[in-house]
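Support reply, case 0932

Customer input (verbatim):
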Amino acid sequence: MQIKSVAVGSADHSMAQLALDLGLDYARTDWEHRDPRSGADWDHALPADQLWWDNYVVQTQSLSEARMLLPLFRSEGQAQRFVLVIRGLFPAADLPVWTPRSLQVKAGTSAMTVPGLGFAVVVEGGKWVNVHAAALAALGCCSPAAPRPVLGGLRVGITDPAATAWLAGDALGSFMTEELLQPEPDDIYSVDVLIGPGELTQQLSEQASDQPLRVTPPVWTPPGTVLPPVDTAVVSPLGFLPYPDKATRALRPIELGRRGELSEADLAALREHNYVEVDGDLFGGLDWQLARRLSQLAVAGVPLLTTALPAPVRSLLGEQLVDRIQAFDAGDPRVLRESKSIELRRTALDLYSPRAVWNTLLGQLGKPLLPVPSVSVVLATRRPEKLVSALDQLARQSWEALEVVVVLHGFDTDLPEVRRAVEAFSGELQVRTVPADMIFGDVLNAGVRAASGDLVCKMDDDDWYGPHHLRDLVHAKEFSGATLVGAQVEFVYLESLDITTRRPPLGEQYSDHVAGGTIMLGRDELRQLGGWRPVHRAVDRCLLQAVQASGGLIYRSHGQNYMMHRHSGADSHGGHTWNPEDSIFLQSVAEQWDGFQPPPQIDAVPSSPSGARLGSMRSHFARVPVPVPAQSALTTHSHT
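Our regenerated output:
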């Protein structure tokens, strides 16, 4: 049998020229063209373990398009060489290049920029590489976070390439060929849910009658009244610009394309503008595509100025998200513009993240829901007088799957302040006591040992947090793929000077540093890193260094959920936290106000700092109502 080569992608580009640009020998084999939109091109007469290719070349216009092709590669067999080309993408020179262990071969991966073509990744494995595994390796070279099972391990199959948007780039998604739809009598279905036409239900039922012990996946047919999830690996709050330098621009119907998809390049271009105007009257006949695009722009937090949104668009998006979209005003101060963007993307992620959409669908199908991660907050304190206000802030958190572990450092539970704080807290609470001479890193580790949450978050007893602090960090952990997430130290109240300062906001980005009082990471990930180092200071810095040294990513979310409190007393931090001079926080200040001025996302203050100019303790910024999205509690209320 003669081995052929494959070229996947648009037929607009000559295969011979593509091979020449990539330095491949076009004449060495015959070539097949594979259209990503044609299901017939992906249904083979041979099973995957009998498919062998020489060169397997995939060309796309964007990273988002490349991710949508992943399920098509599950049954494509082996190739001697896999090449991914993303036209027009020219990433940074320090882009990580790596090969995942899943290749199971002595593979080599190389990345290069091809003049006039774009970014190309070549995966070779000695003799053969699995096409799907090679695609995962190549995609891992094109973005900070590697492709992963974003649907929590749920296996979803599609029967039409046009349905790839429902998989949101999930690494476990499959295009279901005829072979996969008709497994051998003693085999299983490779998916848990099947997206396809309703008549498949009858076909599967007939097969099940011959195999009564086989589990048959339910078939779901997408109605035209429901939007797919947003692939948050490429469309997310990452890259939001608090201070854009370009004026408002209009969204044009021609930009929506056939399915309303948003590429990373298109999103980056929109980021540079203060607002994007959307005039619904210009999008006649494109209701579904416009709603799809708006759901993506909302997840990205792009500030929008909309007029005349058609009723079908409003219905597809839902009134809650429409309200967030329409909350923007071109006259808003920058801090309020950003605050409304935060509200927008939070609501959109609650509605259109892959887990959120699929939990809605699984509920309709009567299947178990994807788990919502639980959070354990570790709060270590030397100051019993701070416990009431600290627990009050935690009680206001909108993330309901929450457990609080308080570590009393040098005192015990019989103090009146401690009893009063514990009795007033209605959530799930554990209290541990440790000796006053215990090293601070070990104090935190004692709290982690008592924690049971999927995620661990360190919070301080004297700073201020917005009610959605934990919710936004959980979202950031999910869409960024980072090992550790946190917030920027942006707003600081200097008690001795009675002023509030704001450092230049940097937006959301991968970074090497986050505020110690906002660190969140997986409990198992923290254990694998060795926990907090047993040192008396710089415990946060040591953990951040460990994440980077192990090859993990650090993601910094926005700074409006966190406000640092710099006390006037020289020893006010108990000797175990960072305590620089106030002058540090007066350097490179973007904005400054007299008195206590919290950002809009911190909409109430549970305790009052001392100071002469505090007045009503309210920020001068305009307020935006923040309804808490409904969510089922995953924890019980108890005191230990």
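We compared this against your earlier run and they match. Two observations from our side: The chain is about 25% helix and 20% strand. The first helix runs from residue 15 to 22. Please reopen the case if you see a mismatch on your end.
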